[in-house]
Amino acid sequence: MKNYDLKKLTLEEKCALLTGANGWQTDGANGKVKTVWVSDGPSGLRMHNPEKQEETFTATAMPTCHVLANTWNLKLAYEYGATIADECIYRGADILLAPGVNIKRTPLCGRNFEYFSEDPYVSGKFAVEYVKGLQDKGIGTSVKHYCANNSEYDRCHQSSEVDERALHEVYLKPFEMAMEAKPWTVMCSYNPVNGVYASENKKLLDTVLRGQLGFDGLIMSDWGAVHNPVRAVEATLDLCMPHYDGYVEKLTAAVKSGKLTEKQIDERVEKVLKLVEKNEKAKPTRKVESTEEERHARAVKMAEEGIVLLKNEGGILPLKGVCGDCGKQSENCADGCGEKKKYFVYGSISECPYLSGGGSGRVQTAFKQTALHTLIAEKTGAEVDHRSDNQWDRDWRGMYHIAYDADVTIVPIGHGDGVEYEGDDRMSIRLTEAQEDRILKIAAHSHKTVVLVYAGSAVDMSRWIDAVDAVVFVGFAGEGVNEALSALLCGEENFSGKLTETFPLTLEDTYKGGDTKDGETDLYDDGIFVGYRYYDRAGKQVLYPFGYGLSYAKFEYSNLKIEKKGDTDFEISYDITNVSDVAGKEVSQVYVKDVSAMVHRPEKELKAFSKDEILPHETKTVRVALDYSSFAYYSTAFDKWYVENGWFEIYVGGSSRELPLKGKLKIELPEDTQYSTK
Q1: For the chain, how big is the Rg over CA atoms in Å?
Q2: Which letter, b or e, does each residue of 149-165 get, where b requires 16 or more Cβ atoms within 10 Å of its Cβ?
Q3: Could you tell me which residues are beta bridge partners of residue 39?
Q4: Catalytic residue numbers?
Q5: Model's pTM, two decimal places?
Q6: Are 116 and 126 in contact (CB under 8 A)?
Q7: Residues 6 or more apart whose Cβ sits within 8 Å of residue 638
Q8: Do residues 151 and 106 touch, judged by C-beta distance below 8 A?
Q9: How do residues 588-634 score in pLDDT, each as one tens digit?
């Protein structure tokens, strides 16, 4: 590995290193410095062919990150990163521009499918494992978009006006947690934050990210996010991407005029050179350790754990093959008729499922789908009919007859990259009126109705939810979606996904009804009350709460114990019993409430979770740890995280609104650390 000497570079060459050579490659300073190739993510490799820029390489289309987060499985997050790393190695990408850890402040954000959660703790935990999975294989990451980029509407100009405490507790927290994995780079966002563009915001980049959060890597810009090269360097931005015509000339002129010192340029160049050196050191360790088939199988497995069962009245799912006591996968009927079940799948999504939203996170896959209805027929042995829903094949009367004759009608419905995409927000969280009408018309003629919802964020189901028997939130589950979904619907696999965002009853029930902007500024006057914290504080009913998801198994909680391990360290243990005849995986969640704080705090905050496989009628003891960060809030008086003495309540259960276990503990730190009256 070559160690670079700044003294061997001219001022112009040094300034050239601070912007890209093109759209996807760092500059080489006239051949004196090795270059680094970067590529889009985060749900798989989206790399442009270096020799033919208009061509995008095909890659494994993984479930998008909101589906990954719905697995609540951190081991899968690591494997997800490692899987994408193999494709980076194969194609020659050095850094993946991922993961995105922005908070889902509103379900309207067009890019929510790329992000993990409305909860900063979940987002941070998944970010750590995602980054480790990639970087342990020698591929760098770029944690993004730093920061307070929580909508796509006019993202390049609209200022995010956010107070200091909310900034640290909600929007910076995932970035802070991600530092544990030592990401190679962090990408700054387009938007101004409190009136100053992120690329020029010295407080955010230097004081907070480099200082308080301890980041020692390279800070790059989002593509086109730099407005003033001189101010960007002053703010300690290291790399402007992509290539910026005139960047070198503006920086060299600033040095010659005294607006910038050459030392300031050198400090930024050193970060670029260290990145190059880190990349060169990693190259010999890189090795593709999976086949294309193995990567696809992983995508299927992750989709299986991330697809969420929301409703299953009367145990309509899993689907059976025959009626009677003579067939496999059967349920006994009164006369033991042994007739095959009849299923009807209505909709073209069965053949062409939505895999992702649009923009830089959309992966070009070469995988060819087997239709969902075909897979259901193969797995159950049932009679399965299918009809398209395109305008040239919409025989409503004929469709009603088929639905009426079927035991179960399955309706795949939703939207894809034409509705949810980078660069703009959704206008509504409802399906189209025509789609809602379709569900209601089919349900009115069907014996039983199952709706499969494809979307990248929360959906308003209020108009039709009571008319159907089962609902599955598929999300954007990647190229393995039909295989995963058919295995879940037919009972070969058990649902274990849970929501990492709240599904409100309607958009009007969200904070300000989703209307948080005026075209110039986005006022974050919801403060720390984001996601379930807001619904708890407002006392609002929701369609499905944060952390919610059903299983074919049934779990009961008991025996909560709290053991003190240190001043602010506690072990929380509890038992989960599978009281069904089906093995399943349960996501248990631990929430903490500050009983009487000197500042306003949420009703409860998620501080630990665990996903555990539990056999039929087995009882498993789960243990999780709480520490200082579990009880702290960000004090604007001290500019740091602070824990007050006093009582804290501990809640444990299967979702944010189903918490059967409750306990309490007391923090008693030395009095000289305290400024409260408790």
Answers
A1: 26
A2: bbbbbbbeebbbbbeeb
A3: 96
A4: 222
A5: 0.96
A6: yes
A7: none
A8: yes
A9: 999 999 999 999 999 999 999 999 999 999 999 999 999 999 999 99
